[in-house]
Design a protein that fits this description.
By secondary structure, this protein is an all-alpha fold. It has 7 helices and no strands.
Length: 145
Amino acid sequence: MTRPDPAERRRAREAALQMLYQWEVGRVGPYEVVATYWPSRESNEEISEELRAFANALVKGTIERVAEIDELLSARAHNWRIERMAAIDRLVLRLAVFELLSAPATPPKVVINEALELTRTFSSDEAVAFVNGVLDAVRKDLKEK
């Protein structure tokens, strides 16, 4: 099996972020999010089943491990409580930390760079430095374990 092209994986991460936003802001359960997200995108964009599965796994895994992820983030987001962060920034951080925890085959640098691209696309320029600093600190913590 060949590894999907990085641009395609970025689209899958974007989809995962959008589903996580729907989960958090819309107060929708993880299975409902996945079930309703893809049919609404069918006519607009093609994404392979493999990449849909990747996006779905990111969403479900992030939600399942949100307490553990938030604990790691709280330890490194100095002077920022998780609930006070902008929703998109919080979700990008959660998604990236889940990937750092669960996808050892993906280099941490790639995970962080992807998170920064998501932040540039969906948040603000100021948030990029914040996300980068928090993720780098979490990466170092995980490397020490």
